[in-house]
Amino acid sequence: MPEISRDEVAHLAMLARIDLSDAELDHLAPQLSVILESVASINGVAGDDVPPTSHALPLTNVFREDVVVPGLTAEEALSGAPAVEDQRFSVPRILGEEA
Amino acid sequence: MSDLTRSTAAALAEGLAAGEVTSVALTEAHLDRIDAVDGAVHAFLHVDRDGALADAADSDARRARGEARGPLDGVPIAVKDVLTTRGLPTTCGSKILEGWVPPYDATVVARLREAGLPILGKTNMDEFAMGSSTEHSAYGPTRNPWDLDRIPGGSGGGSAAAVAAFEAPLAIGTDTGGSIRQPGAVTGTVGVKPTYGGVSRYGLVALANSLDQAGPVTRTVLDAAMLHDVIGGHDPRDSTSIQQDWPSFTEAARAGATADMSGVKVGVITELAGEGWQGGVMARFQESVDLLVAAGAEVVEVSCPSFVHALATYYLILPAEASSNLAKFDAMRYGLRVTPEGDPSAEEVMRATRDAGFGDEVKRRIILGTYALSSGYYDAYYGQAQKIRTLISRDFDAAFADVDVLVSPTAPTTAFKLGEKLDDPMAMYLNDLATIPANLAGVPGISVPNGLADEDGLPSGFQVLAPALADDRVYRVGAALEALHADQWGGPLLDKAPVLAGAAR
To answer: Which of A4, A45, A81 sits opposite B309 (nearest CB)?
Structure first.
């Protein structure tokens, strides 16, 4: 199993949308390597004939009756929002400056 | 009644029914106890004095009209801060949810309210339930009432410490890899992880959906059973909730308390012993097994060979699910928003917010999960872990074909010192060695206090696991062991805990 490099951690942090500082990268990268080394022991333990389990108990899809049930009001749904405008979530710009 | 805070919930329920005590009086007694000791213990993140007393007054009025909603109507409870509570802050121990007040109740919380249990407050936890010591809370650690320099276990250290310190007779915890049972073991209290799907996850802020399960945190097995009877059962709002009628767990616990174990076949798990297991914990375990034998149980050793891979499997599946679940903390709809200088984009706001709002352990696991789910690594890590999950379930199936319950020590050691493992993630993860297999296979488990280790005089726990849906067995065997030990000790283990000096919040 490959060791995880500082650059890889920086890339993963970008994918996970977390701004890690240099100090955090220095701290996290070696710890992640140790964890990965430990979990790598499972490689090859289960052969191709073993089916994967996603949930411990068998599940079937669940539907409910197509009837109206009360939900949150707009005020309730917006009550925890960092910014609200005209009964909507107000968010920063989503396009680049050149757009 | 004498000391209200030291009574069991079952005794409080009887006192209420007999008119010997009011819910207001016993809720007030617990709020006073919180005021007196929680400055030292820090089990609570939020205490709702006014709300709890108002609920208690309603309960007393109901009972006076002859309309009590059940045995626990009026018995107060503490709730882990990972379950949403309408009108009460819910932080999950994270800065990213600081000050968030949910507009809805988790189903577990709604059922507590319907059953008339006043909610004392919200208990401390490792951030988003990631940890085994409650040191990863963004609001500071909870301390173990047995020794304030030691951890109370995690992630539900707050709930376990609250009942161990007599701040609440009952509490709710959640168990993803042992977060109810391991804190129970190290604080000398009882914790139950029900069968996956036995208790609704609606309103439980998800850590790992396929593993999370809420359950009782109490001082006695009977109290846990009574609480389970209140919170369990099918919920149409949780698509993984099991649709079936459950037997009365209260009756199972009462039957077990007769301590007759004849006809019960108990399997000792070979793999959960050996190197890394504290001598005093193993000595207490053997003593408990001997007590069960003396009470008529047949005990055999059972090998579950895939369990040696459970820890590694868990630390791939959990981060993978967690990294996906925590993507919802995006600074747009609720929680913290950190806006960098200038005219930042939504993505830059997200990145800055998640850096400021998440602690170290959460970042570690999100990045680990993102890695495990990356193309190129998916089959080697996540895919492989899911297959081993199948092997672990097969080990349980094979074992339960031969025995009624499986047993092991709940945790490999007693409570360690605060700070000792904080920056060594793998050492921290090893605490969950014995509890994780149950989560991977969805089976129920209980931890019952079974004595003090000779080396350090700290509590150890005895774990009982049963097949999926057979939660009644963990109550029956757990109650039997509890009764056998109480006879041996002349009272509950918590009688031996040091008296907490008053330390105001």
So the answer is: A45
